[in-house]
Structure formats: structure tokens, C-alpha cells
Design a protein that fits this description.
Layout (H helix, E strand, L loop, with lengths): L16 H12 L4 H5 L5 E4 L15 E15 L4 E9 L2 E7 L3 H7 L6 E6 L1 E3 L2 E5 L2 E4 H6 L5 E4 L4 H5 L4 H14 L10 H6 L5 H9 L4 H33 L10 H10 L6 H15 L5 E6 L5 H14 L3 E5 L3 H14 L7 E4 L5 H13 L4 E4 L13 E7 L6 H8 L7 E6 L5 H7 L4 E5 L10 E6 L3 H13 L3 E5 L7 H18 L7 E4 L5 H13 L4 E4 L12 E6 L7 H8 L10 E6 L5 H12 L3 H23 L13 H17 L9 H13 L8
Parallel strand pairs: 4-7, 10-15, 10-16, 11-13, 11-14, 12-13, 14-15, 17-22, 18-20, 18-21, 19-20, 21-22
Antiparallel strand pairs: 1-9, 2-3, 2-5, 3-4, 5-8, 6-7
Helix pairs in contact: 8-9, 9-23, 10-12, 11-12, 21-22
Bound molecules: adenosine-5'-diphosphate and magnesium ion (MG).
Magnesium ion (MG) binds next to helix 12.
Organism: Maribacter litoralis
GO biological process, one term: DNA recombination
Family: Belongs to the helicase family. RecG subfamily.
């Protein structure tokens, strides 16, 4: 069918009219014929199968059964009565139950006559029972027109109030199919259809709305999901390729003295295989003419900092400057200290710029940055201020990417005549599937190996009632010379209450761990940066044994001697946050522990989160569970959720199809980058259509 025809406003469809058009638009976003066609059913009611009573499962699914009523009676209940019939086939018996319309039913139902019944079966009091079944004598059922699988479309209260029921939508769909003659222009190439044994477009569209049977429905779903994901991947990958062609980066041709000297003489440890591989990937990007735009994923403690340092050295070797931006002051400080130490004995200059650096101290930094004396600038958001101008920024490294918005990233980008290379480091592993869809236009490196000798952190879940035991454990660990974190939730909406929790907790700990034997640090969001730093510093130096804090310490902080992480009200934290917090320990050679404290009342999701934390240390595994619990939109924040506005595919459930779609999109662009081969014209055409009508990727800017 002509693509322009499908852009016809829905108001012109027979049976719609201005009122319905308005409601369809506001409730379902359906404005055109195409939109209606893309309104895919949520589920289907299967009337192709007949179940035997003996086969019924406690699945609460709709079932269709043939049998007879052998007895019917009225049962008194607290309020009024119910009508109960025993319904039997040759494999067993169930109950049919009515609460309304009992008189009519009693008068009209015939005993011992074969009926086809349809409805949900509940497991109740040791038998299956079906309330208010749809019923039809078998004879009539066999003579009537056959309904196969009945689609159930998305609905809202307003839709049903306005009489746009599921039946009405089905009718409109039928009408639309009549108008377009059931014909759809094919939108995938013959090659793909053949290789993947896909149903063609017309058959897929027909069977998604009017499935003839389960098998054809499954094929239709597969094909349409594949198509949706394929075109998204094609677009993302295509964008990446053209970005690399268009946006020139500064080529760092040399691996010079700074890098070599560091690698040969200053590395404090042997790099892991994964670190070496990632550095190689970065080097090859930087050596090309394209601008690097790379996401570096590595679990907490996997050693991303050293990769960042060596990347910066490559820039400096080629006479460029580098910057490293962190989300918190604490982390920026720590990076500055750590990196300064690593670079000791070199001529490389390095400065720290955060919100609390005084005006007088900023001036020389600004100047040295502009005249090129300063090689490396480390800091927070302060790096984005207009006053911060580089002589020649060659690479920007952003730590803990998930805390920065896209807008902020592009701000960095626009600081230069040419965009600097960008390396985004994240310790919250984004599930691979999600990363592929969201960042198809970024290159991704993964550090999937921890430095040697790390012992997995032992994680346990304890109820508040066992606090005394937990305190005893803390005492023992401190006795061994270890340090302990105690973390409280801080959620903005209830800041005052959280603050009280933190202070109460602090007081109770101070009582149980009295001075002078024990020293306690406290860090929270309402403190002045200087006080925070002071408290943090005492803990880093080992002057205090216990650090009571809110989540400000979540990101990046590195105190290898700390071996116990206690998370209070752990049920209030998300999985990725729990994992981040746990990552603050287990950084030294000692066995480390994470104790998740909660009350007794826990939601199912909370239980799953706690169980997952206890079961695994693997950030990727945790990220996958998180994705399942929260859904992709939540994980990436509202900003990017439009990205996941898929019509039919589901990023979590259709992971395999996504992988295959990506594989074929990559292959296609490799073989025919401009999509100009005759056999790919269909794809080229579809691609152009989609871009024009912004159909599935309104999100791509
Ligand atoms: P993250 O990836 O969480 O930023 P860091 O870069 O802070 O991790 O590294 C965590 C700790 O591991 C640091 O103390 C660092 O010195 C150490 N480390 C990093 N790489 C190695 C390695 N290859 N061998 C031994 N220790 C390492
Ligand atoms: Mg880090």
C-alpha cells in the first residue's frame, strides 16, 4: 500500500468521525491510518484450542472447554446467593459460578446438553471454578462463524467510557484492512526474508491483527519485532559510521615518551588483560582520523582510572590537553590525588577545579589552561563553566556517565573548534542489550575482569532485630584493623526524615562505639564541602574507623582498608545503587563484607533485589535483573525513555531478536554502506520513509 495513503488522518476512516478521532489521538496517539495499523494487540484470546478439564493449569488463563452441566444449584452465602453448576467432560469436573442473572441462567441452561464454555478458571477450594463463563451449545458453536484468536488492544478508561471498546477497535481495523485491500508494501529485502524465513509484510500485518492460529501469530510477531529492531539498529549504526566520516577528530599519531615511560617504569601494577585490550581499542580510535566517542564499561573496582590516565597520556604525547570530569567533589578530589601520585616524577601538570576552589585560585588555572601550560584538568561540573577555556583540549573523559545529562556532555563538546575525543566511563554496567539499543551510535569497550587477588565480597541480608549481632561483627572487624561504612538512604522528597534517620543512626553508633577507642566520621549532603572533605580525609587516613554517611559516598571513593559496608534500610535502594555502594569495599586484599539491613516488611521487588545482591557480585548480572524489575525507561531516566518507545518489540524479552537484528544490520552496512545495491532498495526506501515520518525514532536528534 502506498506509504502516503497510510498517512491519511484517521478521521477519514469509515466509522471514526471527529469525536472518535480526537479520543483515539489523545488516548492512544493514533492520528493516521499507519498509527492504527501499528496499534498492536497486547494479547490474544485463543479460541482455537479446546482444553480437557484434566489439562487445566493454575495459570489463570482463558480456556475453552466442551462438556455438559450435570447439576445446578443455588447456594446461600453471606449476602444473597450464588448459582453453582457442575460441569463435566470425560476427564474431570469443574464448577461454573454466577452471582448475577441467576434466574435467567437457571431457566435457560439445559442439563446434559453439550456446551462450549469459555472463560478464566480460578483454583478455589480445591477445584477449578469459572465465574460467569461465556456459553454456547456445541451445535450452534459448530455452525457459527469461526473466531480464531481474538486480539485484545490497549485500552484506557476514557476509551471504554466513550464506547471505543476492543470490539470497536477490531471493527475499525477490519475496515482499514478492507480499504487497503490487505496489501502492504514489503519493507524488508528478499534476502532477509529468505535467510531468516520471515513471513512477508502483508501476511504479518494480517496475522498480527487477525491471527489464524498460534503459529502464524508467532511468525508475524517475530517478523514485525525483527523489522522494528532492525531499522533502529540500522539507523544507530549508520549514524555512527557517518559521524566517524564527518566528524574529524585530532589524530593522536604518536605513542610518545610520556605513555611509554609510564607504561615501562611507572605502572604500579601489572595491567589486567581486559585493561590492556581496552587501552588498545582506545589507541586505535585515537590514531584514526575520526573522533572517538567511546563508552567504557567496567564494574566497580575493575580499574578504569588507570585506563583514563593512560588515555590522557596519549593526548599529552601529541601536544594536547586532557580533562577528567567526575560527578562529585569527593570523587574529583580523589581522582586528583590518585592521578597526581601516579604522575609523580613526570613533568605533567595537573590541576583540580571544583565548586569549592576559591576565585583567587581559579584565575591561574584559567590562565594556564588557555596558554597551554596546564596538561590535565580534573574536576566536577565546574569544568563546564564558560570561563573554562582550553588551548587545545584533545580528550574529555567523563567518569560515572549515568549522572550526566546529554546536554552537559555536548557542552563539553562545544568547547572546541573541533570536538575532542570523548571517553565516557561508567561503573553501573548497562545491560548489554540496552547498551546496544541506546548506544548503538557509540563504540563500547568493556573491562570484564577484576584485578587479580580480589576476594568476592560476602553479602548477607540481616533484619534490624539482629542489629546487636551486626554491631558485634563490626567490633571484631575494627579489632582486626579494618574500617567500616554505614550508609543511610537519602531520597530527596523526604530529605528531612532521611536526615533524622541518619542522625539517629549516628547517635546510636556513637553510643555503642564510644570515644576515644572508636572514632567516627560523618558525611552527608547538608555539610559544607570543606567539612565533608575533612571528614572524608580522616577516614581515608585511617584516623576514624567508622564512616557514617548518606549516598554521597556512593560513587568511586576508594579506601582499600575499608572492609565492611553496612547499608541501612537497604530495601529503599535500587539495585544499581546497592551494587555501587557494595563496591566501596573489597578494594584491598582482605575479605570484605556487605550487610544489607532491613525491617521485616518487604515488597516482592525488594526481596528480589536483596536476594540478587546476596547471590552475585557480577554487575552485569545485577544490571539484567534491574532491567527486568524496573523496565528500561526507568533505568535510563525520562530523558532517554523515548528511545525505548517500541511499538512491538521488548528490549528485555526480545533480546535474541535484538542481537540478530543488530547482526544483520551490521552485515548489511558492511556489504552495502550506501544501501545502493538493487536488492537493498526496499530497505533504502523504508529507511528514508521512516526518517521522513519519524516513525519509530522520533528520539534521534
Ligand atoms: P574503578 O573501575 O571502580 O574506577 P579503580 O580505577 O578505582 O576502579 O581501581 C580500583 C582499585 O584497583 C584501585 O585501588 C587500583 O589501584 C586497583 N587496580 C586497578 N587496576 C589494577 C591491576 N591491574 N592490578 C592491581 N590493582 C589494580
Ligand atoms: Mg572509578
Amino acid at each position: 500500500m502506498n506509504a502516503n495513503f497510510l498517512q491519511t488522518p484517521i478521521v477519514y476512516l469509515k466509522g471514526v468521525g471527529p469525536n472518535r478521532a480526537e479520543t483515539l489521538k489523545s488516548e492512544l496517539g493514533v492520528e493516521t491510518y499507519q498509527d492504527l495499523l501499528n496499534l498492536f494487540p497486547n494479547r490474544y484470546i485463543d479460541k482455537t484450542q479446546y482444553y480437557k478439564i484434566g489439562q487445566l493449569q493454575r495459570s489463570n488463563a482463558d480456556v475453552q472447554i466442551i462438556g455438559k452441566i450435570i447439576n445446578i444449584k443455588t447456594v446461600e452465602q453471606k449476602r444473597g446467593t450464588r448459582l453453582v453448576a457442575r460441569f463435566k467432560d470425560d476427564t474431570g469436573e469443574i464448577e461454573l459460578v454466577w452471582f448475577r442473572g441467576q434466574k435467567w441462567i437457571r431457566e435457560n441452561l439445559k442439563l446434559n446438553l453439550p456446551y462450549v464454555i469459555f472463560g478464566k478458571c480460578n483454583w478455589y477450594n480445591g477445584t477449578f471454578s469459572m465465574p460467569h463463563p461465556e456459553m454456547e451449545p456445541l451445535k450452534e458453536h459448530q455452525q457459527g462463524t469461526k473466531v480464531y484468536m481474538q486480539p485484545v488492544y490497549p485500552s484506557t478508561e476514557k476509551l471504554s467510557n466513550k464506547g471505543i471498546t476492543n470490539k470497536v477497535i477490531s471493527k475499525l481495523m477490519q475496515q482499514l484492512f478492507i480499504e487497503i485491500n490487505g496489501k502492504f508494501t514489503e519493507s524488508l529485502s528478499d534476502k532477509l526474508l529468505y535467510e531468516l524465513k520471515l513471513l512477508n509484510k502483508s501476511e504479518s500485518m494480517f496475522n498480527i491483527h487477525f491471527p489464524k492460529n498460534q503459529e502464524l501469530l508467532a511468525k508475524a510477531q517475530f517478523r514485525l519485532k525483527f523489522e522494528e529492531l532492525f531499522y533502529i539498529q540500522l539507523q544507530l549504526i549508520g549514524k555512527n559510521v557517518s559521524r566517524k566520516k564527518k566528524i574529524k577528530g585530532f589524530p593522536f599519531l604518536e605513542v610518545g615518551e610520556y605513555f611509554k615511560d609510564f607504561y615501562n617504569n611507572k605502572l604500579p601494577f601489572e595491567l589486567t588483560g581486559a585493561q590492556k585490550r581496552v587501552i588498545k581499542e582506545i589507541r586505535s580510535d585515537l590514531g584514526s582520523n575520526a573522533q572517538m566517542n567511546r563508552l567504557l564499561q567496567g564494574d566497580v573496582g575493575s580499574g578504569k582510572t588507570i585506563v583514563a590516565v593512560m588515555t590522557m597520556l596519549l593526548a599529552i604525547d601529541n601536544s594536547f590537553q586532557a580533562c577528567l570530569m567526575a560527578p562529585t567533589e569527593i570523587l574529583a578530589n580523589q581522582h586528583f590525588q590518585g592521578i597526581s601520585e601516579l604522575l609523580e616524577g613526570t613533568e605533567i601538570t595537573c590541576a583540580l577545579l571544583t565548586g569549592s576552589v576559591k576565585k583567587s585560585a581559579r584565575k591561574p588555572i584559567h590562565e594556564q589552561l588557555e596558554n597551554g601550560e596546564l596538561n590535565i584538568l580534573i574536576g566536577t561540573h565546574a569544568l563546564l563553566e564558560d570561563k573554562v577555556k582550553y588551548k587545545n583540549l584533545g580528550i574529555a573523559i567523563i567518569d560515572e556517565q549515568h549522572r550526566f545529562g546529554v546536554a552537559q556532555r555536548s557542552k563539553l563538546w562545544h568547547k572546541n573548534e573541533f570536538p575532542p575525543h570523548i571517553l565516557v566511563m561508567t561503573a553501573t554496567p548497562i545491560p548489554r542489550t540496552l547498551a546496544m539499543s541506546l548506544y548503538g551510535d557509540l563504540d563500547i569497550s568493556v573491562i570484564d575482569e577484576l584485578p587479580p587477588g580480589r576476594k568476592p565480597i560476602k553479602t548477607v541480608h540481616r533484619y534490624d532485630a539482629n542489629r546487636l549481632k551486626v554491631f558485634r561483627f563490626i567490633r571484631d572487624e575494627i579489632e582486626k584493623g579494618r574500617q567500616v561504612y554505614v550508609v543511610y538512604p537519602l531520597i530527596q522528597e523526604s530529605e528531612a526524615m532521611d536526615y533524622k534517620d541518619l542522625m539517629d543512626g549516628y547517635e546510636s553508633i556513637a553510643r555503642d562505639f564510644p570515644q576515644p577507642k572508636y572514632q567516627i566520621s560523618i558525611v552527608h549532603g547538608q555539610m559544607k564541602p570543606a567539612d565533608k572533605d575533612y571528614e572524608m580525609e580522616r577516614f581515608v587516613k585511617g584516623d576514624t574507623q567508622i564512616m557514617v554517611a548518606t549516598t554521597v559516598i556512593e560513587v568511586g571513593v576508594n579506601v582499600p582498608n575499608a572492609s565492611v559496608m553496612i547499608i541501612e534500610s537497604a530495601e529503599r535502594f535500587g539495585l544499581s545503587q546497592l551494587h555501587q555502594l557494595r563496591g566501596r569495599v573489597g578494594r584491598g586484599a582482605d575479605q570484605s563484607y556487605c550487610i544489607l539491613m532491613t525491617g521485616h516488611k518487604l515488597s516482592n521487588d525488594s526481596k528480589t533485589r536483596l536476594e540478587t545482591m546476596v547471590a552475585t557480585n557480577d554487575g552485569f548480572e545485577i544490571a539484567e535483573v534491574d532491567l527486568k524489575l524496573r523496565g528500561p525507561g526507568d533505568i535510563m531516566g525520562t530523558q532517554q525513555s523515548g528511545l525505548l518507545n517500541l511499538k512491538i518489540a521488548d528490549i528485555v524479552k526480545d533480546n535474541d531478536i535484538l542481537k540478530s537484528a543488530r547482526f544483520y544490520a551490521l552485515q548489511l552496512l558492511k556489504e552495502d554502506p550506501s544501501l545502493s545495491k538493487p536488492e537493498n532498495l526496499i530497505i533504502r526506501h523504508m529507511y528514508a520513509q521512516l526518517v521522513k515520518h519519524k516513525n519509530i525514532w522520533t528520539y534521534i536528534s
